Amino acid sequence: MYSWYGKSALTVVLLAREPIPSLKNNKWMTRAWTLQEFLAPKSIRFYSRDWALYRGDTWPNHKESPDIRRELAQAVGIDEDTLVDFSPISLDVRAKLRLASTREATVPVDIAYALIGIFSSDLTPECRDPEDALGLLLQEIVHRERDARAVLDWIGKSSQFNSCLPAEISAYRDPPYNPPPILEIEMEARVAELRALLPKRDITMFFEDLSALSSISFTHRRLSLPCITFSVSVDTTRCNEASSTSNPRITYQAQTSALGYFEFKASCTAFMAQDEVVLVYPWLRDLLAQTNLPGCDKYTRALRLVVHLEQPFRALLLVKRSFDTYKRVAVDNEILIPERKMTSLKDIGTKVLEIL
After folding, report:
1. What does the DSSP assignment read for 121-176?
2. What is the pLDDT of residue 284?
3. Residue 49 has pLDDT above 90, yes or no
4. What is the pLDDT of residues 118-158, one digit of tens each?
5. Cα distance between residue 19 and residue 49, in whole Å
6. DSSP secondary structure letter of residue 104
7. pLDDT (average), residues 12-35
């Protein structure tokens, strides 16, 4: 359908049969399938009741009408140039997921299928389960784009397709977390401090091990996620108390030797006392890209990487479920590790984890 709209000479949109205060407040803007109806076409005209031109605007193409183009761009939250000349590569993965995150469909699986053209997907619309349909689409995006942050940085309920994916696309309404930038003068000062603090051999080996990890991949519902790992101890003493209540969700206290204490809220059945729990930093593509500067030797790149790792970051929490496989713990709040100074690389690992 995306291709049909893209090749159309003119796309005609009948908005409603009642007075329309604005495009933003019109039901047409909430539907899953209508996202491609205004992105794909080069030429479009909006009509209100009785087939009257929207706002009486007589421009042959409402994407070229300054007033309607501005109104439509503001209603959707993209710039006007992107709206006028959209293609699947006009926006990054997370921006397109955000556009879809507020939309609804009468048939739930259509939430995913309405995005096939927008993501240039090869997905065949065969699933009847909405979580599986969305899961297949997101799996393809991760495997093709290798972008962990765009798809995996969310808060909410996990999908039955894979625990690292959300059950609903509305999880992408909020943007992924991005740490504040580091001024170069601050970077150089901290690198000088770390040169005197961390053994060159240790930090260089850490950097080499991290760089050697295979890329993220996602096939057959199995996510292979390269990441920095931190062993976690979780206090589960309140689980029995909460399990007898009508809302069995509790705030857990947890700690890692490398990062200190943190809290998160999740189901009282998320863990058992004997479970192996690991906190992970999976945003390696962005992390390594920040150190890839011309003229930098490996040791300096490794030091700069540690400085970036000292900045606040949103972490994922995983629990080991079987031999070398993990599941993501669905939490009610972000796990944001605050800025801190690293004095050692002890108890920090690098590994590709298999997540179901």
Report:
1. ----S---SHHHHHHHHHHHHHHHH--HHHHH---SPBPSS-TTSBSSGGGGSSPP
2. 96
3. no
4. 999 988 878 889 999 999 999 999 999 999 999 999 999 99
5. 7
6. B
7. 84
Residue indicated by tokens 């390594």: 288
Q: How many helices (H) and strands (E) does the chain have?
A: 13, 11
Distance in angstroms (rounded) separating the CA atoms of residues 301 and 293: 8
Percentage of the chain with pLDDT > 70?
96
Q: Percentage of the chain surpassing pLDDT 90?
A: 71
261 forms bridges with which residues in the sheet?
Answer: 255
Stretch 330-355: mean pLDDT: 93
Report the distance separating Cα 151 and Cα 134, nearest Å.
Answer: 12
Cα-based torsion angle of the residue sequence 193, 196, 201, 205 in order, rounded to the nearest 10 degrees = -10
Q: How far is CA 176 from CA 139, 150, 196, in A?
A: 18, 7, 34
How many C-beta neighbours within 10 Å does residue 316 have? 25
For helices 200-212 and 298-309, give the axis angle rounded to 10 degrees. Answer: 80
User: CB of 32 within 8 A of CB of 99?
Assistant: no
